[in-house]
Amino acid sequence: MDNIKATHKKQCLLAGLCLIIVILSTTPIFIQPYMVIFLTSIFLYMVLTMSWAIFSGPTRYISLASAAFFGTGIYVSAILGEALPLIAVVFAGGVISFLLAFIIGILTLRLRGMYFIIFTFVSSELIRNFILFYENSYTGTIGRWVVSVDSTTVYYFMLVIFLMTLGAAYAITRTRFGLALRSIGEAEEASDHIGINVVMMKVLAFAISAFFMGASGAIMATRWTYIDPLIAFNPLYSFMPVLMAIFGGVEHIHGHMVGAIIFSVLEEVLITEFPYHYMLLFGIILIAAIVFLPQGLVGKWSKGGLKETP
Amino acid sequence: MRILETESLTKNFGGLAAVSEVDFHIDAGEIVGLIGPNGAGKTTLFNLISGSLSPSSGKTQFNEHDITGKRPYKICKLGIARTFQLVQLFGHLTVRENVQLGSLFGMFGHSKWSEADEKSSELLEFVGLLDSENALAKDMTIANQKRLEVARALATRPELLLLDEVMAGLNPTEVSEAIELVRRIRDKGITIFMIEHVMKAIMGISDRIIVLHYGLKIAEGTPAEIAAHEKVIEIYLGT
To answer: Could you give the number of structural domains in chain B?
Structure first.
């Protein structure tokens, strides 16, 4: 009986998902370009948050290196944009970020807690300054031009990256890999002692999360046409995913999505309505969210969420 | 047959020798007790065997493998499992998931969830926790948490099980149950090396006891020999 119910629920979920995909993939035909761009940035925020949470959610290692991988994707796009077709550029952005994260991961994942957080943040700054130095001394420029792509194409690329991130995030929670990552977040020493190669698991999760950040950076760069290290490696991209995940609820994938959607809508509304006080209002809302909803919006709504709050 | 053997195993923390030139061996199928006053280096010795710490010098041999300084997960996969003095469970995972992880990643690393699941049920029943398999590990009583930790260690299918004070903090009934459990584990053919402060327990079930004091092995023998050992009495009762 339970089994039939479960399959039924699964079918409904699958049908719902297909419907959403169909709606999302036909949307650009019906709406204004402005809305297409807005939806793209919502997808971007969702990708950044979900991919950040692939690693940081279960392991509880707070990474502030998102900007490093996002920015790497942007630079890959700027450098390879003319040489390769767009799809190859986006893929390359993901792969190069993956490799970079692998290296950073091997170097940093022996650190824990505060040391890890600071090291990841600094590694992002290090890359930014290295590129700045390189461009100044060797290419003689500061910024670069990126091959421009129309907003509908960018929308479809972001949509695909979003679906891939969602699929990966969901798949990982269902595998032994995901279970092992959670065990690392709970008691890392014990995980090590029951045969889990904790360093490998962490590095792999870190690199997978970087892949999606890099890919989304590569496609978003085409929207901006001009980039420089300050734009590409803006530390805001390291903090945003953390804030959005906390806002929506770190524990669940739909929490990350809700957090990212509300964040992007809020940002859009505040920027247009209160251009001078937008950062101030944003900060106040965020503080209120952390004080009153420590489990995140989704945590508050879902059963038992309130009980867990001390 | 010797399953574990150390050769002048030493660990220095700065100028302090926590474990100093310790030689001992464990035979397959034995229950060996490790006792000594607080700070004698018992847990450090466990950490050296299981790979949490690398020795400053000396050697550890497990079956035909030299496991000196190997990483914990590798040592686990060779067949040594352990529990911790302060229980280290995956608190927000369910009881079943805790055990599943052991069988998914342990010595043989079950490739199928269904196999790991079957093994988990078997072990949960073995330690008597099958009824609470869906509870979160953090919500269990301390006695059950200790049982769960034993089940998780067993799920990795060890040949040698290191138990670090599994009876500490338990009431007399729970202690008897724990003693019973240790005996049943041995009957499954698993060798046991255990640290224990509960004298009644360790004297009752050990085949052999090793005594550490200030990092040195000062005595070794059957429980009767240890109970009559002059130096051991001196350490425990003072002169």
So the answer is: 1
